[in-house]
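Hi L.,

As promised, Magnesium transport protein CorA:
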Amino acid sequence: MINIIGITKEDKIEKNLSIQNVNFSNYKWFWVDFNQPTEEEITHLDKTFHFHPLAIEDCIHRLQRPKLDYYEDHTFFVTHIVREDERKLVKEELNFFVGENYIVTFHLLPALEVHHVWEKLSTQTKGGKWDPSYVFHQLLDNVVDNYFPVIYKIEDQLDNIEDNPGNESMNKLMDELFSIRHLLLQFGHTVNPMRDLLYRMLSSRHLKGITKRSAYFSDIYDHLLKLSDMVSSNRDVTADIRDNYLSLNAYQTNNVMKVLTIMTSIFAPLTFIAGIYGMNFEYMPELGWKYGYVFATGLMAIIGVSMFLWIKSKGWFR
């Protein structure tokens, strides 16, 4: 589907224009949205707008890294929309062709960010402050703002792992933790390139519309810096939780080994005594002794108690 809004030279907004009949020269500026276009509709990128073949190729072959490319009469931008779906991060491209008097958006899946800005512009009676660079800012702002619910949800999941209100087993918590670390890694692969893209845009001398609204685009850049820091800090939190789990696991293992060592230390001499008198040699004087059994069991009891008291005095039971 191809949607078109045109702002006339009298600053009036015209909607529901058809790409087959529209005369773009009659408009001060216009916005064309390629929303889940068919193969035939995609050909208009070349036939109608004459965009660079490499930019058209980048639109069709997803997912490209967020970037910008300068061409003779337009600039091409690749950005990423992010959604979380059943503990998976779903990324989709939102591409822009921005010229002096137009903006063209291209996306192969529905984009709520585009729909929101489209409806916002459609309710206006006059163009007013709206122009291609302002539409571009509004779209980018919506894209980046929708990153925050994703990172906030991840932070809530980390809080649940730390608090463990459901008293889940450590193995299950570790599975969730490594799943979150993977989400953060994926999210960072979007946030950091988007941050670099905004930095390039603000540093560029070729983008006059962005330079004119640099304060607004700087605000988006600040949001991306914050998001990048949040991704990094949350990855540090997952590493701390993982290390604490490994330390706790090692501590518990050491306690088990300590108990087993104490039991072995106590029963080793008792086993030695029992082993000697269990060999059934014919000539063993103690076997014929009337008090031999009492003596042997008494000796083992004394040794066992002595070993226990000695180990306790060394602080092994603390």
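The radius of gyration is 36 Å.

Thanks again for sending the construct details.

K.
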